Amino acid sequence: MKTTNLGYHPTPLTPQYLVGIVWNKIIQGLQDAQIPTQDLSKQLLAFALPRHASQSWEILVNQPLFLPDDDMVAILNLRRSTPATPPPAQGNTLFYIRSFCLSIGQLIQMIANRETEGKFEDESLAWKIATELAQDEDQPVWIRYVGLSSSESGWGRHEADIYNRSAGIFGAFVKARYSISASIVENCAVFEFPLAQTQAFRKPDGTI
Predict the structure, then answer these.
(1) What is the dihedral of CA 76, 81, 85, 91, to 10 degrees?
(2) Cα–Cα separations (whole angstroms), residue 83 to 72, 106, 146, 156, 160
(3) How do the domains of the chain map onto residue ranges?
(4) 174-183: Cβ within 8 A, 24+ apart
């Protein structure tokens, strides 16, 4: 089966090098979203920074659509959220990731459906660019969103959104289970960052 050539050049994958590229990516993303970064430090964001050398970090930064869930879980030390996962303790806030796995062909069809409706999102353009060199439309990709919750588990929030949210890109995934394949939503996986590693984000007054 033909696969996408990610075009990586040989790089010394030391932890220090990887921390640098991941840190810069996080800070740039926050600045692009106009979120203040002057009070952040690598110690504060240690839970999201590399602790050992792995090419999975480079893929996460440069071509995240092509990083399988198992590899993401391994480098970020995530835990799976399920219907049995309890909500966070009172006063705590958890960060979670929902991950939709679909084929490149299904993703292209979903984008085409959005464009037919006259909806052209930045995410869709980025996905088209990221997959334009793919030679196999059956190749899987992973579309992910990060969220936070103080009242439900990551899975609980995801399940509620399936029934209550119909707008935006998330709504497009919900619609895709009817127009493209039910597996797009049914196979969505939800992961959580361990609470002990996210509490550092809390301000002294307990707010995020």
Answers:
(1) 50
(2) 21, 27, 18, 7, 12
(3) 10-62, 65-201
(4) 175/113, 176/102, 176/106, 176/110, 176/113, 179/113, 180/102, 180/106, 180/109, 180/110, 180/113, 181/102, 181/106, 183/102
Q: What is the pLDDT of residues 20-45, one digit of tens each?
A: 989 998 999 889 888 888 888 888 88
pTM here? 0.80
Beta bridge partner(s), residue 190:
81, 98
Tokens at 34, concatenated: 């106009």
Q: Are 81 and 159 in contact (CB under 8 A)?
A: no
Name the burial class of residue 174, with classes exposed (0-12), middle (13-18) and buried (19+) by CB atoms within 10 angstroms of its CB: middle
List of E strands, 29-138: 79-81, 94-103
Q: Are the beta carbons of 143 and 68 closer than 8 angstroms?
A: no
Token pair in block for residue 175: 């619609």
What's the start-to-end Cα distance of the chain, in Å? Answer: 46
What is the tens place of the pLDDT at every residue in 85-102? Answer: 999 888 888 889 999 999
DSSP-assigned beta bridge partners for residue 102? 141
Residues 6+ apart with CB under 8 A from 183: 102, 177
Q: How far apart are CA 197 and CA 174, in angstroms?
A: 31
